[in-house]
Amino acid sequence: MLVGSQDLLLPTTMVGNYPNPRWYDGHAYAVYPKGEFVYDAISREAFEDAVGAIVHDQEAAGIDVISDGKVYGGDSPYGQILYHYVERMTGYKLSGPPIGLPIYSTLYAPTCVGEVRREYPFHLATLRAVRKATKKPVKISYTGIQVLAAATNNQYYKETKELALAIAKSFNEDFKELADAGCDIIQVDEFVWPYGMGDWEVEVLNTAMEGAGCQFWVHTCWGNYSGTPGYFPDDEEREFGAWVLDHRPTAASAPERAHAIFPKVLGANIDALNYEVGRTGPDDLKPLADNEWSKAFVAGVVDVKSTVTETADEVADRIRLVLEFVPAERVGLTTDCGLINLPRMIAASKLRALVDGAAIVREELAERGM
């Protein structure tokens, strides 16, 4: 699989959030800058040290593609998934109703009250900190455009698509800046795609990526807020309105997962698609074959909702299932989702299991002359 300029067999990486070092969270210096770290040398040192610690865990495990870990600082990491971006764009007010989507409804929907434009860089400081800590290929993660649009209390644009296009143009500026600064891969986390895709999601994603000279991956998943999977609300919750209680009735249906994104995702100008297999099993791989997916597929083969670390053999078994649907030269390997809800010790052990499982399968492929 092509990673940057390198051709790697079954490259390993991780998805999204990683547990921050405990000394970093909850302190006054745990602040991601708007713009540059110009005046506050302590914040810059703390941020770069925190990123460096997360990079070290990945390198110690033997991970091939190093992720940023989504070190935001300040509020809860899931809140910052939204607020980090709206705080760096014009047109937003940081108040609004609860997000009307189960498991995310303890977060509020920021209100769009004016024209949306990028005011400050989103992840330039992130890239610089990761690049400082490693010489391996680097992957920087962004919250998805549909996620931000869906989680916005829109009081300015006539349609959600207009808002999404404005966000896409802001992202495009940032993507180009990161590509020019040497980013190998940009990952866009569209974790609401399984709830349904309309007629504009792929268009705005392609708009955001246009002209940016790096690889693009899309990660989609079935929810991991508070370590729980997503679900569709039942009639009682719809009548309630905002689903703040998230009581997860046993009759609530799960999202249709991978089936919900095909065939529309075929039109996305991305280099790789990623979603979980570790927890959900091989059924979610069927749409890849049914729709003749010809690009790279990065398979989540480590269950992030379990505190039990898989053995290398268990990970290898999951990889073998993936290879029944996608040839080895187009497969990458990762965690199902972010590891943020796990203790850092367990998160690190799961990364080692991922690497060890990949090594087992690589050796088997080598014996077959692949």
Automatic annotation (TrEMBL):
Signal peptide from the UniProt entry: none
Keywords from the UniProt entry: Metal-binding, Methyltransferase, Transferase, Zinc
Name of a matching Pfam family: Meth_synt_2
Protein name: 5-methyltetrahydropteroyltriglutamate--homocysteine methyltransferase
GO-annotated molecular function: methyltransferase activity
GO biological process, one term: methylation
Required co-factors: Zn(2+)
UniProt superkingdom: Bacteria
Organism: Kribbella orskensis
Record PANTHER family: 5-METHYLTETRAHYDROPTEROYLTRIGLUTAMATE--HOMOCYSTEINE METHYLTRANSFERASE
CDD domains: CIMS_C_terminal_like
